[in-house]
User: Fold this.
Amino acid sequence: MSASDREAIWTFVGKKDDIIRCKKTTTVVQGRDVLVIYREGVLYAIDSFCYHSGGPLQLGDIEDVNGKQCIVCPWHKYKITLAEGEGLYQSIDPRDPRSKAIWCSKGVKQRTHSVQERDGDVFVTLSDLSSKVESDYYQSKKYKQAMRATMKR
Ligand code: FES
Assistant:
């Protein structure tokens, strides 16, 4: 089913003022753990667990990387763009070791979702789940149960 075939289900995730005050909040949308972030006037929604190894992105800092707002995973410091879910990395030209490192994209690794505000209330609808994104692995029931048990310790 494509995104255009399915009817969007918008789930209330909180009051905009509360999300602005907290800067980040985690929620569950149709069984999926989603992180909602407010940064410089924009709301974002992404899968809560990092595509690399399931790190808890709600504990990550937000940074501007090469003009893009990114969350920095607290486990191994991978940088993920909030708007697109791209994994970013730095690279130099291997033929010129004196070249300056530049930011490059690995492509979309972290699933992002649509978020909108209506009259002070914030809603999220999941993106089209028909194609795979690497962060999908960490949304499995088995993985999430193990993660919650770890975070309670
Ligand atoms: S788990 Fe996020 S960078 Fe490794």
Notes: The chain is about 10% helix and 40% strand. Residues 72 and 78 are 6 Å apart (CA to CA). Helices lie at 16-22, 141-152. The longest strand covers residues 32-39.
